[in-house]
Amino acid sequence: MRKIQRKGRISALIVCYQIDIRGIVEEEVVLNLLEDMHLDKEIYPFVEMHVLGVLRNKNRIDELISRYSINWDISRMSYIDRNILRIAVYEMLYLPDIPRVAAINEAIEIAKMYSSSESGKFINGILDRIRKELPCERNAGLPTNNK
């Protein structure tokens, strides 16, 4: 199961990266991107949920990342780091079945594989600050859609 989730997060990162670089905001285009990837049927629902969740809640997610990324404007972050953070924050806010510490650890590991040597520390610092400030109960007063 853990291997499927890692593969799903990496696939979600690929799609979120493409969305970010291209400035895509339409769900239909995102769904077409997902279809074009020919993902394994076992990870497709996981990837779709993450990508659409990040897309629909991007404003709230980016607001949190911006608030806790000391001396770093979100627009100055690398596309990879920014989207690793978005996926982890989405999990921390909206997916109660995924422990927040697991979301952070996965983000760090993926950053070590796909970003710079310093990204793991950078991502850990931001996500840990967010984790400490979040209410214990998920979705406490948070909007679920920023359309």
Automatic annotation (TrEMBL):
<keyword id="KW-0889">Transcription antitermination</keyword>
<comment type="similarity">
    <text>Belongs to the NusB family.</text>
</comment>
<keyword id="KW-0805">Transcription regulation</keyword>
<keyword id="KW-0694">RNA-binding</keyword>
<dbReference type="InterPro" id="IPR011605">
    <property type="entry name" value="NusB_fam"/>
</dbReference>
<protein>
    <recommendedName>
        <fullName>Transcription antitermination protein NusB</fullName>
    </recommendedName>
</protein>
<dbReference type="GO" id="GO:0031564">
    <property type="term" value="P:transcription antitermination"/>
</dbReference>
<dbReference type="GO" id="GO:0005829">
    <property type="term" value="C:cytosol"/>
</dbReference>
<dbReference type="GO" id="GO:0003723">
    <property type="term" value="F:RNA binding"/>
</dbReference>
<comment type="function">
    <text>Involved in transcription antitermination. Required for transcription of ribosomal RNA (rRNA) genes. Binds specifically to the boxA antiterminator sequence of the ribosomal RNA (rrn) operons.</text>
</comment>
<keyword id="KW-0804">Transcription</keyword>
<dbReference type="Pfam" id="PF01029">
    <property type="entry name" value="NusB"/>
</dbReference>
<dbReference type="GO" id="GO:0006353">
    <property type="term" value="P:DNA-templated transcription termination"/>
</dbReference>
<feature type="domain" description="NusB/RsmB/TIM44">
    <location>
        <begin position="8"/>
        <end position="131"/>
    </location>
</feature>
<dbReference type="InterPro" id="IPR006027">
    <property type="entry name" value="NusB_RsmB_TIM44"/>
</dbReference>
<dbReference type="InterPro" id="IPR035926">
    <property type="entry name" value="NusB-like_sf"/>
</dbReference>
